[in-house]
Specification:
The chain has about 260 residues and is α+β, with helices and mostly antiparallel strands. It has two domains: about 110 residues, no CATH class; about 150 residues. The protein is built from seven helices and ten strands. The longest helix is centred in the middle third of the chain and has 34 residues. It is elongated and about 100 Å long.
């Protein structure tokens, strides 16, 4: 009610000021209005209330106003410390919100495995075994080069038995027979966040296999989803190179959960 009366008085004063009301009266009323709105006690109370309600933006604004309008207030020093605390709490809140957003997305797409499929190895008779693995539903396309060709078609299939046992097969000229050249390979990977890995893989049969530690790093990169870039070089013949991208590895986590449930 008092604020309303002050505002009403201010409006009246503005209207009649042209009729000869002293400027001093106007200044006095305006000062009273500003004190009511921006008084130190009011701003301090607003900061504390906003902070308790986690309205960090409003708390920050009122801390700034207090410093500007009441630099003599002993609360200013205390609020400098509070500002740092607000920044820390905002980081925690944002991290929590991001995690909740990610979990909400995961739950909404619980049965969505993206480009990934869970399937099973077969035995000598072509019958399904109990050993499941994750692979890409459609071959991943890329390019390969060596002394005989440049930028020829490449298909790639992942074979993921678990987080510590990951292999991939390379099909030159997008054919049906995977590369069987034995030896070691250097594998460069860039994940969705731009983090780069330099790993080693070995071809003992018809696939490049990562050892346990390297497999876990590939697994963690896939868990991030998004775009992953791969560049592979055969160490004995560095002119032999393979390049491909996974355009969208999202929902790999769902596929991995299905794989674990099937075991």
């Amino acid at each position: 009610m008092r604020i309303y009366q002050i505002i009403l008085g201010l409006v009246i004063l503005l209207i009649v000021s042209s009729c000869g009301v002293p400027q001093s009266d106007y200044d006095k009323l305006k000062a009273e209005f500003d004190e009511c709105k921006y008084g130190a006690d009011k701003l301090i109370a607003s900061v504390e209330k906003s902070y308790s309600e986690k309205n960090y933006s409003e708390a920050r604004q009122n801390i700034k106003k207090l410093a500007q309008k009441h630099p003599e207030s002993t609360k200013n020093k205390e609020f400098v410390v509070l500002l740092k605390k607000i920044e820390q709490e905002e980081v925690v809140e944002n991290t929590k919100k991001e995690a909740e957003k990610k979990e909400k997305k995961r739950l909404a797409n619980l049965n969505n495995t993206g480009i990934w499929s869970t399937t099973y190895y077969v035995d000598e008779f072509g019958e399904k075994t109990k050993n499941g693995f994750i692979t890409n539903t459609d071959s991943i396309n890329g390019l390969f080069s060596n002394t005989a060709t440049q930028n020829s078609a490449l298909n790639v299939d992942f074979l993921i038995t678990n987080s510590s046992e990951i292999s991939l097969q390379l099909y030159e000229y997008a054919g049906n027979n995977p590369v069987k050249s034995s030896g070691s390979y250097t594998v460069l990977i860039q994940d969705k966040d731009g983090k780069r890995l330099k790993l080693r893989a070995y071809n003992y049969s018809d696939r490049l296999t990562f050892e346990e530690t390297e497999s876990r790093q590939v697994h963690n990169a896939l868990l991030k989803g998004g775009t992953l870039k791969f560049k592979i070089t055969e160490n004995d013949t560095p002119t032999t190179e393979y390049e491909f991208n996974i355009q969208n590895a999202d929902f790999y986590e769902n596929a991995y959960k299905k794989l674990k449930e099937s075991k």
